[in-house]
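ARCHIVE RECORD
Type: protein–small molecule complex
Small molecule: NAP
Source of inputs: curated submission
Record status: active
Notes field left blank by submitter.
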Amino acid sequence: MTAKVIDGRKIAKNILENVAKDIKYIKSNYQIKPNITTIIIGSNPESDLYLRLRDKACNEVGIISSHLNLAEDVSEQKVIDSINELNIDEKVHGIFVQFPLPKHLAIDKIINTIDPSKDVEGFTSHNMGCMLLGEEYIIPCTPLAVLKILENEKYDVKGKDIVIVNHSNIVGKPLTALLLNRNASVSVCHIFTKNLKQYTSNAEVLITGAGVPKLITVDLVKKDAFVIDVGIVKKEDRVCGDVDFESVKDIASKITPVPGGVGPVTVACSLENMTKTINNCID
Ligand SMILES: NC(=O)c1ccc[n+]([C@@H]2O[C@H](COP(=O)([O-])OP(=O)(O)OC[C@H]3O[C@@H](n4cnc5c(N)ncnc54)[C@H](OP(=O)(O)O)[C@@H]3O)[C@@H](O)[C@H]2O)c1
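STRUCTURE (tokenized, with ligand):
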């Protein structure tokens, strides 16, 4: 049997159609021009690509996506001051800080300066803490994209054995909380996991985001598993994920490709989060 290949672009299109309707409603009922501002510190070709995709999507649904560019060697205080100005600016309805940040900046301090009601990525301690306690409001975009993919397949995670290969603050940790909130049995693996196969080969749902091409070979996957590949690695001219797609698709029941899987859904989820922060500003 060959796995069903999930079409992330189609899921993203549906999400964006709903976002466009919400934005149209907001614009016709309130006198505001929805504006999301991204703070970009220095330059990074990989985040430039993501930003371009997000800006294009914003433009299509009627959200103004502004950039505030700061120098690579900007002081931490200057970044904090800039965020505080955006927090009180009534013309700004959501704030992003583009990752990665230069090493001299304390990421937690910077993120936690964002007003949680304008925190489009859901990375502030407040929004993360609420999620951990089961009050999900602004959910980080990549974990939200994984949930959307599962939901789109009408896959109920309750009681399922789910393995996540990633324990970062932006993917694995929030995703663990979200899946626990839905009563899945979740195992989390990372670089110190002694025997990855011992976990992955029992996973009914395997979600991987290590950023290591072909980390997940067919012998690591349970028959009929739902395999979701969050990894994005640039190899020469092309992009791939963690999963050895060609062999794993012959054993999995459902699988996301890279590109065209989690990536486009993440961009769409980012815009869905924007509608939440925009609504916060008009409530
Ligand atoms: N599709 C999307 O929309 C999207 C969005 C965000 C990120 N991504 C991609 O997802 C990947 C992860 O992003 P991130 O920001 O979470 O990166 P990260 O902070 O580097 O996290 C990578 C995770 O994988 C673990 N890991 C690395 N190599 C491993 C191995 N050989 N075996 C087991 N675990 C291993 C790491 O463990 P340690 O921390 O212990 O090293 C860490 O938990 C990247 O490829 C990134 O480009 C995709």
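CURATOR ANNOTATION: The domain at 32-117 is CATH 3.40.50.10860 (Rossmann fold).
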